[in-house]
Amino acid sequence: MRNISLAVIALVIVSSCSDYNTILKSTDYEFKYKKAVEYYEDGEYARAGTLFQELVNIYRGTSRADQIYYYYAKSMMGQQDYLMAKHYFQTLLKEFPGSDFAEEAQYMVGYTSYLLSPKPRLDQEVTHEAIDALQLYINLYPYNEKVDEANRLIDELQNKLVYKSYLNAKLYYDFENYKAAVIAIGNSLEEYPFSQYREELKFMLLKSKYLLAMNSVEEKKEERLSDALDEYFAFVDEFSESEHRKEADKFYEEVADLLNYNEEQTNIN
Fold it and tell me: pTM higher than 0.90, yes or no?
């Protein structure tokens, strides 16, 4: 019985391949389109994609082209070829902005870019593209059921950009390039003022300014010490209960002593 079952399965496979090859060779494009849709609906995305790839050229410039682009893009999604899927969703939108598939295509441009978004340490151009596409989708279709999901994806992508900015700033700090760290940390705080890394960044900024001042040449030392002192006051004013407070206070004591700074006397004056 087992041998008979295997033989039946083999026969079905051979027959299926034979049918598919017949479809591939067919010049009846309406028939080929119908079978491509059937393959897609059955989850046979590779076969569907191969057929739609040919049909893209056959139907280009016709009223059915948007359907072909749509199904080809969806077939590419099924094969996890997100770059190709994104391209054809974009093509659909460009050539058929009034298509019935335009709304989903706009979302899918953003979603494919989201899927293509790389790890935080890498270049984030695609991440920005994903945010822009998803935001455009929300603006164009504010009442669609996918809006909440689009907002969730944007939040996730924004968090990745925040983390990327944090990592860039921390890199200079970790390599003890404090002059560059001061600039990078300042840029990160300015671009993302409500970052979840704000406290750590503010402390790294204080410490970078302190160490930069302590290792400065004499003609720049006083100015940089004053800058470090100002940064200390900004830090403790915002994060008075910080776990870094004890170390920050040590910076203050040393800087204040070098500057002959007396806080009580200054307040009286």
Answer: no
Percent share of the chain, pLDDT over 90: 86
Please give the DSSP secondary-structure letter assigned to residue 99: -
Tell me how far apart the alpha carbons of residues 119 and 16 are, in angstroms, rounded to a whole number.
41
Q: Do 86 and 116 meet the contact criterion of CB atoms below 8 Å apart? A: yes
Q: How confident is the model at residue 2 (pLDDT cuts 50, 70, 90)?
A: low
Q: Which residues contact 256 (CB under 8 A, 6 or more apart)?
A: 229, 262, 263
